[in-house]
Design brief:
Length: about 450
């Protein structure tokens, strides 16, 4: 547990802390926001393109060896970033960090589950969820402090001690998994899914306004990526040894958990987009106040996650997830009902309620779904879950941003002020997110109250 948390939390902590360095990097390298923004975008694209390989490499090399390789790569990439003297060097470091994260993140829960009996996996996943939520909450504060007393290189250097400790623990304590040297590599599937994921993520990240969809540079990469992903699905159904085992979706509880996780990822990342716009454009708060408003969400989610995990071990999976989903819906509707003069304390309460919804509904659902999968396929299942959430959240954020721009223009055309137009568009978006969560609520009933594999284990066709 400690080994995995040292690795995955370092990735999350570094990523959230680096957000604050964007203005500093623009000044130091005399570059525009679009180019420096690739510091974040390249990490996400590299991680998304690497994740499809994780399941195959974990089967071929073993979970332990692959996770440690990712940890070494993240350590080396952090050194490259700290020593970089050009923006290109920083971008190269971020790309390498994204590749490392794509190898490490999907293996975090499989490594823990490999040494934990099924009846205690809810509890350990709750502890994992606590750390996963705390890291991004602490990251901006730590990043701001380091930038106050040092330079941007410190945001890369801060990874080194934790990464070295994580590697020492990993080499000493992680158990070697079973490797399947006979498994063949699905090259066609790899090319289809990697290029498809890359094109979709790049296209979504480049969309800045609805007008971009009318330009060939906006819709051609997106359409091309979607066609490639469609080709990958076809290839995965026909291949004897598919890169990603889509047959796992035949397991009812796992399928439901992935769909629930994707919808909740859309809700979570959608709020990361909408709430800063609401706080600053409608209410006129500064960036510091906006950032602090997100702390209650992370802290309450971290507190609730271990509690939810214990309840999952007591065979209360359905009740826990349904409660979390209903709390999420209530919080979203509450945000939709807020006016321009809403007091700050009420916003904090609703953000804390979002945290409770995430702690009970978002984090446990992944553990419940993985628990329904045969042990030998957990790495594959975790990879598919992460890929689904990444695509869903990216698409959801883009659609919400486009909705905000379109509806804002329509409200302005109807005579509303700028603040009223933004408030109207944001309220509609929060209601849409709440309705989306309600639509998938029945899926929570298919989550097994105890470890239920939902049918026979999928086998290669």
């Amino acid at each position: 547990m400690l080994t995995v948390l040292l690795g995955t939390c370092t990735v999350s902590l570094n990523n959230s802390a680096l957000n604050l360095a964007i203005p500093e990097l623009m000044r130091v390298f005399d570059a525009g926001a679009t180019r420096v923004g690739w510091v974040m975008t390249l990490f996400l694209v590299a991680m998304g393109m690497t994740m499809p390989l994780t399941g195959y490499l974990a089967d071929r090399w073993g979970d332990r060896r692959l996770y440690l390789a990712g940890s070494w790569l993240f350590l080396g990439a952090s050194l490259v970033g700290a020593l970089a003297t050009t923006l290109s060097g920083v971008l190269m470091a971020r790309g390498l960090q994204g590749v490392a994260a794509g190898l490490m993140i999907p293996l975090s829960l499989p490594l823990i589950f490999a040494v934990c009996p099924a009846e205690r996996r809810g509890r350990v996943s709750g502890i994992w969820g606590f750390a996963v939520m705390i890291a991004p909450a602490v990251g901006p504060s730590l990043g701001g402090l380091l930038l106050e007393v040092s330079r941007w290189q410190a945001l890369f250097l801060m990874n080194l001690p934790v990464a070295v400790l994580g590697l020492w623990c990993g080499h000493r304590h992680l158990e070697a998994g079973v490797a399947d040297r006979s498994r063949r590599f699905d090259l066609r599937g790899f090319l289809l899914v990697t290029l498809g994921m890359g094109l979709v993520l790049i296209a979504l990240g480049a969309l800045a306004s609805p007008a971009d969809l009318l330009e060939a540079s906006g819709w051609v990469p997106l359409l091309g990526g979607l066609l490639l992903l469609g080709g990958f699905v076809r290839q995965a159904r026909r291949a004897a040894y598919p890169l990603l085992d889509l047959g796992l979706f035949a397991i009812r509880a796992y399928r439901a958990s992935v769909l629930l996780a994707c919808v909740q990822a859309i809700s979570a990342f959608g709020c990361l987009l909408l709430i800063p716009i609401w706080m600053q454009h409608v209410q006129g708060h500064d960036a510091l106040t906006t950032g602090l408003v997100f702390l209650p969400t992370a802290l309450v989610a971290a507190i609730c996650s271990p509690w939810a995990g214990r309840l999952v071990d007591r065979q209360a999976s359905r009740q826990v997830v349904i409660f979390g989903l209903l709390v999420t819906v209530a919080a979203l509707l509450g945000l939709a009902a807020l006016g321009a003069e809403a007091p700050l304390w009420l916003i904090v309460v609703l953000m804390a309620a979002r945290g409770a919804g995430m702690g009970f509904g978002y984090l446990p659902v992944t553990a419940v779904g993985l628990n329904a999968v045969p042990d030998a396929r957990i790495a594959q299942a975790s990879t598919l879950n992460n890929l689904g959430r990444r695509l869903a959240s990216s698409l959801g954020v883009v659609l919400l941003a486009l909705h905000h721009d379109l509806r804002g223009v329509q409200h302005l055309a109807q005579g509303a002020s700028a603040g009223e137009a933004a408030l109207g568009a944001l309220s509609e978006a929060f209601v849409a997110l709440a309705l989306l969560v309600l639509v998938v609520l029945p899926l929570a009933w298919s989550l097994a109250p105890s470890r239920d594999r939902g049918g026979p284990a999928p086998v290669p066709s």
